[in-house]
Write a structure and sequence with these properties.
Elements lengths: L1 H22 L7 E6 L8 E2 L5 E2 L1 H13 L2 E6 L2 H9 L5 E7 L2 H4 L3 E2 L8 E6 L10 E3 L4 H7 L1 H6 L4 E5 L3 H10 L4 E5 L3 H8 L5 E5 H11 L4 E3 L3 E3 L7 E5 L4 H16 L2 H10 L9
Parallel strand pairs: 1-4, 1-5, 8-13, 9-10, 9-11
Antiparallel strand pairs: 2-3, 5-14, 6-14, 7-11, 7-12
Helix pairs in contact: 2-10
Length: about 280
Amino acid sequence: MNNKKTRFAACSLMMMLASFSLSTSAKEWNTIQIATEGVYEPWNRTLPDGSFDGFEPEMAKLLCQRMKADCKIVAQDWDGLIPGLKAGKFDVVMDALAISAERRKVIDFSRPYTKAPATFIALQSSGIDLGRGTLHLRGNPELDTPAVDDLRNRLKGKLIGIVSGTVYSKFIRDQFGQVATIREYKTPPEPLMDLKNGRVDVVFEDLGFLSGELQRGGDSGLALVGPAINGPIWGEGEAFGIRPGEPELKAKLDAAIDSLIADGTISELSRKWFKHDFTPPTE
């Protein structure tokens, strides 16, 4: 009798272990749902038929082919991207999302697929000149503040438009909040509309988005008026946002991004959509 009980207990234990093993086995990620705004051209845009186009959707299509995954892109406004990801509404955020220490507190990231600088845009007729060339910033206020002194002097008394909740909005508030008026917006098209209508003097955004605006606008009366600001201040670059604790998904995304960088696909797509090469440094 005792032997029967022992055998029964051992069998039960093996079944429990097998069940636990199945429940904790690595997820294959054969299907992936990706969220994007669909209004941040040329990074991403929504076509009249509801499909998505732009640098990121085209990259995602190639990426998913290499991962052998069935991917679906869905629309989500900017403010709902990270909350929706955390709530499990979708698996990945794709919206020129810059890796930052603040965001790493709540989500994880793939390796970066681009690293874009940012700059200022204004009306050509304004006569605003904030300098040219490249300004490399480290994200250390003690080191960066002296480096932007000239910009601060040129922007004194100006009204700056910026999208809220971005790495750029913190930079603008920290560096220019005491000398200029900062007006924040929910979506990228809004500050540009106010710029064209004379309600702000300059807008600060990533160079990819602003280059796309100039390409679309034709004779829009807008012009880039400042240096291209890059460096560690913007973090490691733009990447896919994912939930913490999804190592298999991160590994698949990282491997596919690596392959797109290695064979020049990212460079090709970047030049196609931005007219600049935003390929990130290889690790």
